[in-house]
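During the no-cost extension, the postdoctoral fellow (Dr. R.K.) reprocessed legacy sequence entries with the updated structure-token encoder. One reprocessed record is reproduced below for audit purposes.
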Amino acid sequence: MYSKNNVAPTPPMGWNSYDYYNTMVTESDVRANAEFMATHLKQFGWEYIVVDIQWSDPNAGSLVPAVQYVPFTHFCLDEFSRQIPAQNRFPSSANGKGFAPLAEYIHSLGLKFGIHIMRGIPRIAAHTHMKLLGTTATADQIANPFSISKWNGDMYGVDATKPGAREYYESIFALYAEWGVDFVKVDDICNTNLYEHDPYSGEKEIELIAHAIETCGRPMVLSLSPGPAVIEKAWHMERYANMWRITDDFWDKWELLKAMFERCEVWQKHVGGGNWPDCDMLPLGKLGKGFGAERSTNFTPDEQMTMLTLWCIFRSPLMIGAELTKLDSETLSLLTNSEVLALEKASHGARQIMRDQDQCIWQSFGPGCPAHGQDIFLALFNTSDNKADITVPLSAVEGLHLDKTYQVRNLWLQTDEFPLQGNAVLCKTVPAHGAVLLKLR
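Re-encoded structure tokens follow.
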């Protein structure tokens, strides 16, 4: 029996095409990144390959860098208003095969395949009164012209109260199930940020989508974007989705990374059990080709370590934004540190111990229970612009026993440090914008 929580029992880990390719990724690009993941990353838990926005537009990116999304573009659609891959970009989709051949190839590598969609129905389908599968209603009859995206003009929202709305969403997810899709990122739905008075206006569409996944016959991870997610609606997202963005698009700027500490603090009690507040993609390595020019990440090595430390101890989903085939050895080593990535799979109970303008401390637990002994993870963050000592009285750490001697492991360096008594004071020198991640056993 299908269960939402069984689809993503741990935070999904993978690659998404957006940060490097923008709207312009092609089948050959996807295959190359999947092959790299299968060879170099899969053994460390990375498994999803996700094709991001406008895969059905044969002209996507033709106006970059002046315009990101081509206005009034004509998507490739089937007769039932459903987007299908643009054949000039995804040649294996010819003859009505859709993404099935590409998904099959991804699966043959031992990986999983995902796609991006915008909520709603293509405007061109509504304007031309196209048919819908499984209903006599037409696209214009379920489209809500007063529900649109602030930043993309491709879709109208779907009015969930209209006859045919449920059948439309069921039809597109039935198609994705036929293709072999494992992950769907739905955009302009977690925070419909055009409507400041009603940022969760896509609530009923989320319910329609969750129902469509439940009935399509294939388990799929449901990811909601963009953020910031509405904390008052955490209960709703926990019921219907697997992951949801707690930030707007996250890029390689220190001020955005520093702001994530506050976002994680707000969402720390809503992590686990198949529910994963999402800190967004990891803008590492080579980025930006599809935005006009390839560039290297602006994050320093210390900032990259801080980002991965926070994402992992918080247990955010991990989606790499870089072109994988161009990863350097240093970046690859960050993404393949099995001791750090283990927090994604087997830690729990993460919480912030303290935070001010210059420092932040998080802790979480390893498998097991305190009565029988369990690992304690401590993350020390220096958010100031200068190297600093960060001091932690271990008595402030939940679950530690004052009379026990703990072995201390530095997870990034993968080295053992001096043992500490549970009543000791831990002090570490941390570089500016840097982090230290420790395991106490």
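The chain has 13 helices and 21 strands. The first helix runs from residue 4 to 7. The remaining legacy entries will be reprocessed before the final report is submitted.
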